[in-house]
Design brief:
Helix content: under 10%
Number of helices: 0
Radius of gyration: 13 Å
Structural class: mainly beta
Strand content: over 45%
Largest sheet: 7 strands, mixed
Oligomer: single chain
């Protein structure tokens, strides 16, 4: 059974940092794009960042660029999201996504989500 398990969420003050992790099991995603999405209360799930299989190419939504860094350890099938300079508008449930080889397509696998809350 394929599983994506996120960790690292929590409560942080504005300007603080958090590092999210997503560990995959059940199959390897070493050749797939891995990414992060988020969903704030009352809003649709939105793309945050993704990384290709080799780690050479990364993609960010405009609000994440310059503050967030996505990385991966393909040997461990794990993807990370380092989030700095967090703001209250970053508050959301963050989901890991994997299973696509195309950076423009959403993968079929999702994690259960990890809550990130940024207080002002």
């Amino acid at each position: 059974q394929v599983q994506l398990v996120e960790s690292g969420g929590g409560l942080v003050q504005a300007g603080g940092s958090l590092r999210l992790s997503c560990a995959a099991s059940g199959r390897t995603f070493s050749r797939d794009v891995m990414g992060w999405y988020r969903q704030a209360p009352g809003k649709e799930r939105e793309f945050v960042a993704s990384i290709n299989w080799s780690g050479d190419n990364t993609y960010y939504t405009r609000s994440a660029k310059g503050r967030f860094t996505i990385s991966r350890d393909s040997a461990k099938d794990t993807v990370y999201l380092q989030m700095n300079s967090l703001q209250p508008e970053d508050t959301a449930v963050y989901y890991c996504n994997a299973g696509s080889r195309d950076p423009g397509r959403v993968g079929k696998y999702w994690g259960q989500g990890t809550q990130v809350t940024v207080s002002s």
